[in-house]
Amino acid sequence: MRKKTVQKSSTKGNAKSNIKSNARNSVKSSAKNSPQKAVKTVAPTAENVSVKQTAIIQEPSVEQYKQNVPTKQPDLGPRRSVAFIGSECYPFVKTGGLGDVMSALPKSLAKLNIDVKVIIPRYKCIPQKFQEKMEYRGSFNMNLCSDGKQYYVGIMEYQEDGVVYDFIDNDEFFSWGNPYTNLIDDIPKFCYFAKAALATLNYLNWTPDVVHCHDWQAALVPLYLRTCFQDTDVGRAISILTIHNLKFQGIYDRKKIQYWSGLPDYVFNKDCMIQNWLDANMLKGGIAYSNKVTTVSNTYAWEIQTEEYGEGLAEHLRYHNNKILGIVNGIDTDIWNPATDKLLAADYDEKSAIKNKKINKKALQESLGLDVDEHKMVIGLISRLTNQKGLDLVNDVIPGIMDEHTQVVVLGTGDSQYENTFRYYENKYKGNFCAYIAYNENVAHNIYAGCDALLVPSRFEPCGLTQLIAMRYGAVPIVRETGGLKDTVQPYNMFENTGNGFTFDRYESGLLYDAINRAKTLYFENRKSWDDMVIRDMNKDVSWEKSAKQYKDMYVGLTPRD
């Protein structure tokens, strides 16, 4: 039985990566000039020469014959080539759920006979261990701005798990320490990135059936496909835009976006790019020009077409509602697996969960300075500390739920008002409240494994991953019925002993308080039913397998242009 402690510190405990890099040899392909007449700077490499070997021919035995009979391969359906274009991808760079999706979904699609390429910027913050394994694939100069100004585009490549990762290299745009800085700098950066990604596909002579772009940072890709690249090979691809969070849209001064993008005048109209007369909206333009728009849950696909959740684009989205589709996210169940998680005091599966979660609870309590008592109910909260995540509701209910039988653990950073409030509660409820104001992967894994329930009371939640991870680790989610939370958490039914969490609908602190108390009542008064729900949660399929098949069906159903 392994046992590891969690250190309570805002500066210690860097995340441990359990992913093994098995980089394969680089794919050799012929190259083709981009529409900007790129000149290649590398010569083609020589192909390996096959060697014929002689062998003594012998009559095979019956056993050998049986071993040599080929097994029938499953029919994986039509093959498609898909280029993913986005601003982040785990484990290279990640700030949120987008990085997880850009990592896990391509790997799942590769297992379904999809030829996948992922294109992201080569930020300087990408760990050196990955930088060292990248291979140079070429470079060219590309026209970008409306005045024809040219910029260098370098291509660095990395391969793993059947997926090819191409990194767009340009120090002028990507030498910053973080992927996002501010709109003044980010608008030119992502105008360049969207166009450079398509030019790279042409340069590498890699023509996809589908170009799948993500969020506003890549939202100009569908517009470039149908304008600057419409007469090139990549221009025949269909375009899909996935909205991970509608709140962020890339809205800025029209003249600046028009200059940096170099897009034609006719896309700058109220039905496409223009918003509020003087501004341009990159995400709005991407929605207008894409063949399909997806969101990361079914409920969110409907919610964003309402004024309450539409973030100013509800009418635009309703106009394009015939091409909007919701597909719920999954999680990487190889990384998030309590049976193999080396960060836990004791690993476990659904058969040993009830026993071994107690071991992990004790380790969590000891490491975070909480009173060690297996009979107390531990409620976890792992989140960015912002209004979107329902922290104002949590702040309201803490005094009511804290008693001698309850402990609360908060992990995250964000708005100073919430950071300071949770520090205050830690001091007020010493031994029963922990405010870990940082993000530490080690601590996160131990909270999922050691807590009994996990709070996700979001104001809005496109999908949400914490409730999926919580269920995987046998922590019962307490969530608000919005977006992906509603799609993935079935409310507990005490009469039928069904469901996998506790939910509330309207965004009110009283309803959150009621949901927490319902959870506490079941935990303390009917532990058998609580344990049944823990096992149901761990058996729930939260992987990417089902969702990846839905994406593949969508790709197959859309026909590239002639």
Automatic annotation (TrEMBL):
Region called Disordered, residue ranges: 1-45
Stretches assigned to the Glycosyl transferase family domain: 373-530
The family this protein is said to belong to: Belongs to the glycosyltransferase 1 family. Bacterial/plant glycogen synthase subfamily.
InterPro entries referenced in this protein's UniProt entry, alphabetically: Glyco_trans_1 (IPR001296), GS/SS (IPR011835), Starch_synth_cat_dom (IPR013534)
Entry's transmembrane regions: none
Descriptive protein name: Glycogen synthase
Pfam families on file: Glyco_transf_5, Glycos_transf_1
CDD domains in alphabetical order: GT5_Glycogen_synthase_DULL1-like (cd03791)
NCBIfam families for the chain: glgA (TIGR02095)
Family annotation (HAMAP family): Glycogen_synth (MF_00484)
Starch synthase catalytic domain boundaries: 82-318
The enzyme's E.C. designation: 2.4.1.21
Pathway the protein acts in: Glycan biosynthesis; glycogen biosynthesis
Binding site for ADP-alpha-D-glucose: 94
PANTHER family: ALPHA AMYLASE DOMAIN-CONTAINING PROTEIN, GRANULE-BOUND STARCH SYNTHASE 1, CHLOROPLASTIC/AMYLOPLASTIC
Origin: domain of life: Bacteria
Keywords: Glycogen biosynthesis, Glycosyltransferase, Transferase
Catalytic activity: [(1->4)-alpha-D-glucosyl](n) + ADP-alpha-D-glucose = [(1->4)-alpha-D-glucosyl](n+1) + ADP + H(+)
Biased composition (Polar residues): 7-36
